[in-house]
Design a protein that fits this description.
Layout (H helix, E strand, L loop, with lengths): L2 H20 L6 H34 L1 H17 L3 H10 L5 H13 L49 E5 L4 E6 L23 E6 L4 E8 L1 H7 L1 H25 L14 H4 L2 E7 L3 H13 L9 E5 L1 H8 L10 H8 L2 E4 L14 E7 L7 E14 L9 E13 L5 E7 L1
Parallel strand pairs: 1-9, 5-11, 6-7
Antiparallel strand pairs: 2-3, 4-10, 6-8, 8-11, 9-10
Length: 417
């Protein structure tokens, strides 16, 4: 047992003894002395425990490389000791297997039923110094997968707060009252009021479940074994993350999708400004000023902007007359965070082509958008549905919902040409 674990167990025993002595209303002299001794021992064990953790962490760091390759090295060494001679003698004479050969055969039998003696494929490989009838072998080795590219998530860049919910729903109350300060008009008069303090609930409900189902053939499974299955799981999770990122901003609110920020802007009271012109720093600056006058942002560096890559292309090519400075340069110097995405924003439409943009800010530590995630990704492995063809079926499910906090912390720009 590790030294840190032993010290932790002893500290737990001391705490239990101290709790029993602490419940005694009138402790005797011996009990008082024992409490002092236990307290001193606990302090000493605490110091030793911290020292043991530091020492063990250094040992783990030194042994990291060895631990990462130990299993592969051990398997190679054991497989190198597998003797086909023992298998032949066992089948011919009934001789008992021993050593590494017996260990490997026992392990293989525990994994499946065999009427004869199981022999691993690795034991049949051609080793250095051996030859085959057709000359030197040239086997094909399957390397780790090169996985698909998914768009980077922009939800975190735009200040979206993820809330993990176990079960049930959750709501966030937002103040909507317009309480104002006022002065006493006369010496005997009352101050203005009273004003009612009212709130609006922003609910998150587990009504929207995203799922992906994938069929994996036997050939695919045999290519890389468990490593391939893990890569496929990451591929499924990446696809889910891509779709969730899209739904946070562009969810239709129908056909099972949650309501995204752009879709629910009108219902949530988010201000929508129609530029109907090419994006310029002057146009975006007026929206930043609106954030500041609503006490939502202290300055342009507290604002986050989400645009399409095509908008960046246009702004970076628009030079200020008589200078080498572009509209993009002015925007980048002023705005705190700029995120570009073709996944979170709808494709440009119309003639001339126009897209949308989103401005958000975090005010008083409150995020502009909340995303509720229920539990974790539920990954279901089904080896039976496609058992006839030796295949495997994976299903991944994730339940989520989207809402905003204060409407003044979000502004939508439309008609960005």
């Amino acid at each position: 047992m590790l030294t840190s674990k032993k010290l932790e167990l002893r500290r737990s025993e001391i705490r239990q003894e101290l709790s029993e002595l602490a419940n005694i209303e009138t402790p005797s002299a011996d009990e008082t002395r024992k409490m002092g001794e236990l307290d001193q021992e606990y302090r000493t064990k605490e110091t030793q425990y911290r020292a043991a953790l530091i020492s063990e962490d250094e040992q783990r760091t030194e042994a990291k490389g060895e631990l990462e390759t130990r299993s592969e090295k051990e398997w190679t060494e054991i497989m190198a000791g597998f003797e086909m001679r023992q298998v032949a003698l066992s089948l011919d004479e009934g001789r008992a297997l021993d050593g590494k050969t017996a260990e490997i055969v026992t392990e293989l039998r525990s994994q499946g039923g065999y009427r004869g003696i199981p022999v691993p494929y690795a034991a049949l490989e051609t080793r250095a110094g051996e030859t085959v009838a057709s000359g030197a072998p040239d086997p094909i080795a399957t390397r780790p997968l090169i996985e698909r590219l998914f768009p980077a998530s922009v939800a975190a860049q735009m200040g979206v707060q993820m809330i993990n919910i176990g079960t049930g729903g959750q709501e966030t109350p937002v103040t909507t009252s317009a309480i104002t300060a006022g002065w006493q008009a006369t010496e005997a008069g009352n101050v203005p009021g009273p004003s009612a303090y009212t709130t609006l609930d922003r609910p998150l409900k587990p009504d929207h479940t995203l799922g992906i189902q994938m069929r994996i053939t036997r050939k695919t499974l045999l290519q890389s074994g468990s490593a391939l299955e893990q890569a496929i799981r990451r591929d499924m999770n990446g696809a889910m993350a891509q779709e969730m990122d899209r739904a946070i901003f562009n969810g239709s609110g129908a056909s099972g999708e949650p309501t995204g920020v752009f879709t629910g802007a009108a219902a949530w009271g988010i201000n929508e400004a129609d530029l109907s012109a090419a994006a310029t720093w002057a146009a975006i600056r007026s929206e930043v000023v609106a954030f500041m006058t609503a006490n939502a942002a202290n300055g342009p560096d507290a604002v986050r902007l989400l645009i399409r890559p095509e908008v960046w292309d246009t702004m970076d090519g628009a030079y200020i007359s008589g200078t080498a400075v572009t509209e993009w340069d002015r925007l980048r110097e002023a705005v705190g965070t700029i995120a570009m995405s073709h996944n979170a924003l709808p494709a440009p439409t119309g003639d001339p082509l126009a897209s949308k943009a989103l401005l958000t800010t975090t005010a008083g530590g409150v995020a502009p958008v909340f995303v509720g995630l229920w539990g974790a990704v539920d990954l279901i492995r089904d080896p039976f549905s496609d058992a006839q063809s030796g295949g495997l079926r994976l299903t991944a499910l994730s339940t989520m919902d989207t809402t905003i906090s204060r409407a003044v912390q979000t502004r939508v720009l439309t008609g960005v040409q």
